[in-house]
Amino acid sequence: MDSKQHIAIFTTASLPWMTGTAVNPLFRAAYLSKSGEFKVTLVIPWLSMKDQELVYPDKIMFKSPSDQEKYIRQWLEERTGFVCGFSIKFYPGKFASDKRSILVVGDITNTIPDEEADVVVLEEPEHLTWYHHGKRWKIKFHLVIGIVHTNYLEYVKREKNGRLQAFLLKYINNWVVDIYCHKVIRLSAATQDLPRSIICNVHGVNPKFIEIGERKKEQQKNGDQAFTKGAYYIGKMVWSKGYKELLKLLHDHQRELGGLEVDLYGNGEDSGQVQEAAKKLETEVRVYPGCDHADPVFHDYKVFLNPSTTDVLCTTTAEALAMGKIVVCADHPSNDFFKQFRNCRTYQDSNGFVKETLKALSEEPAQLTEAQMHELSWEAASERLLQAAGLDQVVLKKRSRSPTTTSPRNFMSMSMNLRKNLDDASAYLHYVASGNEASRRVFGAIPGSLQPDEEQCKELGWEFPAGA
Fold first, then answer.
1. Whole-structure pTM value
2. Cα(402)–Cα(415) distance, rounded to whole angstroms?
């Protein structure tokens, strides 16, 4: 029998959708399994063909989960350089166009056998449990760790009746996370404060970026000019992703920033508007289609400008630092982790942006130390996760999965009993509400998502529920 502890990682997206909750959990699974200390399973959503067409880029489609798994493994191994030893399983999901998100269908805890239900990592725990109807995560698994990627409150505030929606969502998020998670890790203080949560960046960067940074460092050591281009920004081209702030800063300080040239890279719904706004500036701003940040076109830029304050933890900022660049970014909680690096320059107001940008363009980036390179890596991110979750020292013991198993000491504490009773009552209330089609629709669930349909069951090799 396998004596290793099992770690299951559930997430809300999968490749080829290049979003953070598809990419980062994939690297997490790869590096946790690489250590050899754990048996790791990554659990990702499977979409029907019609939803794949809406979500995946460049008309990439998969006829079966095995086809998608092959694509994912090839993509990952090209970037890590090693064969990944973790398992991949799929759960049924449906794409909600209004939320631009994949939502869970049915009880996805069933994807992990009870005998392997040791530790589970819920990437975006609120998202995965809003409409969960099935086994209680904290009963099924010995330890449930939530990792918060997204500040959903900021997103809903931009919608109609946004403040009211954010107020309600805040309490719903607190409720479901309290019911289903033992521990919660927030990537930065830019996320909602949640029960039993700590702040810790448990993400790393694609090793390709560190390789680029090492080559740049070697050029600097040899006295070569490592960076021959000026300033740039890359990100999804929607106004909320920093473009509004950046173009305003460039517009308001065109005289002070005379001679500055900035290149923007990205695709998105607001691409046309961004291009039009850029043309109206005296500052030279060139707009290009988006491409992989590791592409050679970015290697020689010296300064990465990122005024965005909507991110929880900006992946492109970490990537730019790993490549040895200077980053100019807002003094904001989402950037707290990056302040430890000499090449991270923060500003508090528009005058500070001008000062730091001009200073960055006039200087050479500091060479990253080996310790700093390691801090940006997925090896270090895995170490931080294990430490934050208490898995670096504690060896979990197998236990009965029975929800009635309680140590005698617990019965001696009335306060603990009361807490348990309140938890059970809260969980039961959510179970009842999430099992009712009418209440599910009120709170935004996709109609008919209580159970997977026959087509999805067939594609996943699941047994179609009797009477469904």
1. 0.89
2. 22
- Segment 226-265, tens digit of pLDDT: 999 999 999 989 888 889 999 999 999 999 998 899 999 9
Other CB atoms within 10 A of residue 454 CB: 12
Query: Over the stretch 115-149, which tens digit does the pLDDT of each residue have?
Result: 999 999 999 999 999 999 999 999 999 999 999 99
Q: What is the pLDDT, as a whole number, of residue 462? A: 86
Tell me the CA distances in angstroms from 429 to 74, 138, 423, 432, one per residue in order: 43, 16, 10, 5
- The answer, yes or no, to whether the previous bond of 16 is cis (omega within 30 of 0) is yes
Closest to 323 in 3D by CA, of 163, 206, 201? 206
CA dist 239 and 311 (Å) reads: 13
Distance in angstroms (rounded) separating the CA atoms of residues 118 and 224: 52
The pairing of strands 101-104 and 87-96 is antiparallel
Cα–Cα distance for residue pair 329/347, rounded to 1 Å: 7
Q: What is the DSSP letter of 185?
A: E
Sheet holding 344-347, edge to edge: 284-288, 261-265, 229-234, 301-306, 326-330, 344-347
Residue of 326 and 59 predicted with greater confidence: 326
DSSP code of residue 283:
S
